[in-house]
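User: Modeling request: complex.
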Amino acid sequence: MARQAAAADFIRSIIDQDLASGMAERVIVRFPPEPNGFPHIGHAKSSTLNFGLAAEYKGRCHLRFDDTNPATEDQRYVDAIKRDLQWMGFDWGEHEYYASDYFETLFRWACKLILKGLAYVDDSPEEVIRGMRGTVTTPGKKSPYRNRAPEENLELFEAMRAGAFADGSRVLRAKIDMAHPNMKMRDPLMYRIRHATHYRQGDAWCIYPFYDWAHGQSDAIEGVTHSICTLEFSTNRVLYDWYLDALEIAPRPYQYEFARLNLAYTITSKRKLLHLVREGIVDGWDDPRMPTLAGLRRRGVRPQAIKTFCNSIGTTKVDSTSDSGLLEHCIRDDLNHRAPRILCVQDPLPITLTNWPEDRTEIISAPYWPHDVPRDGVRPVPFSRELLIERSDFSEKPPKGFRRLTPGGIVRLRHAYIIRCNHVEKDETGKAVRLHCEWIEGTRSGSKTTLKPKGTIHWVEAKQSLPVIVRAYNRLFNQSVPGEEFLEALNPSSLIEYKDARIEPSIADDPREQRYQFTRLGFYWRDPEHINSDLPVFICIVTLRQAIHDHPEPAQVASKVEKPDGVARPHDAQLEHQSKTATPAKNNSKSKQRSLTADEEQWLKESGLSAATGLAIYGVPAASEFLEAASEHVSRVSVGNWMANQLLPALKGAPLSSLPFGPSEFAELVQLADSGKASTHEARAVLKLMLASEGSPTKLLAGVQSSTVGDSEILSDIVGNVLSDHEDRVDAYLAGKTGLLGFFVGQVMRRTNGKADPRQTKALIEEELAGRAT
RNA sequence: UGCCCUGUAGCUCAAUUGGCAGAGCGCCUGGCUCUGGACCAGGAGGUUCCAGGUUCGAAUCCUGGCGGGGCAACCA
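Assistant: Request completed. Predicted assembly structure:
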């Protein structure tokens, strides 16, 4: 199912092409986490993509730990990553790899580049190297060590490995181009000296490769075909290619980039998440508010919901921020048919049924599932004189549309009776402490009654219900995109604890990892971290959509909240408007045209071409000569248009001199189009043929036209067929939707494989439709 | 200010490669219902970033402009 949802995104299209062209025989991808933190929902997107690709194309996905930095990496994170990926249901078989296992190969390959004169040891201090790199707009400067002899470089590099030098005293750099417009190509660093203990390699190494040097080569070692990473690495791709080319590795992997996941009102930066953990702002990596997979798992989210979410947001190159509401929808959808409904009151308000006998307890057999979930099962629920209802289900002064209990009003108790509230008992502050209600006989669930309460509320029996703690969560941040000052955006009431909650007694016999829907509230389960506590602790996995019982945020923090009145219930986590589509200065946009140089202006004037056409031609080598030569017998404007819009784009940057034809043949083609001897469509087809082979335009046109539907009787047959096949649209057209004309023309073009003359077709259709109008 | 990526409904994405601009989520209305859920039916919501050009026809091709993101770690 989810597979089908994952339609052909740009990556799948590339893979399809590569498979079809034989560029790749099979699909080998990899998921390459660095073991320096816990995986989060963003890693879920990436791993769902990669492991999904492997499954769809019957290839494989390697798990490779990108562990080239001994300072931050740890076995603990390796374990966490493996555990979480397994939980997600991903299987990498025996293909578990570590970049650190490739250190020896990488070293050898680096020596190879040194001997080819493509890498050198630089003795410059860190700051000097940085200073000489230049800026994005200014070129860098060459290091004085840049031209060391390969033999000397090799000797030094081996000494680096042997531990002869101090940390930071030397680096190995690739020798590329210090003036390259892409800064990643300005003699990038390949190795640094770090006398540090690596969590896997111990003290075997004191030089460590950088990402760019390690990654592509690791891909190559593993035979990866498609190396899929996130957008921020797109500038690294040129370097990725350079290393592989320099090493002359074949067949080699190729890198493709997609947009990482951003989720509104949360963060997916390992650095920032680590900060929350270290500072104790959250209760560890698996705090249920964390976007980590460990946090989601503890929260009670099932991996299938995460996968559905990841597939439904798609894979593109557009940097976007997903609405957390979509994730929540996937979680609800996943749980709806698998979580039995039970009753739990989070914030109890006692009620007494004054007309119910004190010693009478009725055991109600209540179904676990609502009518629309085709599952069976019931549990006993005690009902007596003393009950508890949700405090927010009662209102003395009900707002408009309130469908719950009010003084004098009636309401249905879920699975039980209709009651009426007769009296409100209050404390000295005016707060309701107990409702005196009457039970209405004969209104038990399932029995016929003429009473029509406006709503149904949940409840529990006062004495037999079980005390529990319920923890509910609001979003961790108050800003949709927390940014660098994320600590200031923290939501002070992201955790709401209900200490006096009461739950129906049936749960005592249930498995502790059972997930429930608390009727009218949301989906819940027991916190796995407190699974054996005497007082059960329940976690809210996700609220119901438009749940009435939001988890309130204390009033005193309201002023700190972005939208003071906005109770942050997860489902209204709509993004506030982002000025993303803003295109200002709409009205006076005419003045926005680029100012032309004097030369350009002069040329444009002389050529008589429009600016758009002229600028496409101006500056292309030999183009204006070509234009002049071709314009001898045809209108210059026509030639210009054909050049700018058809010829030059088809050339894709190749020089005009590479054309198999000259200006006069081109002029002949333009002439055919101008004179009407060839339709635009035909002329384009001729151009295509001219680019691919020899032959005069007129001759080629004859070939094209021989298969043209020139016969007007045949054409009107086809027109008739199209119209009768789309009667509904004909009606719509006649009703005024004249834009449909293009659709009809298109249909005819399609049926004739583009061989009908569009003008003639259009005229025929209009004529035909005019006939039908009367 | 250089290079790379990128602009389609409130959000996330489609659009058979130039031929009716659609889906899911969200929102609204109605139906059903003993959950303000789910489900069913319907609806609103678009200058396809803007301006030109080519074309019978442009979200799609061409030119120019504007907006958003990334790149100057001995991080990945």
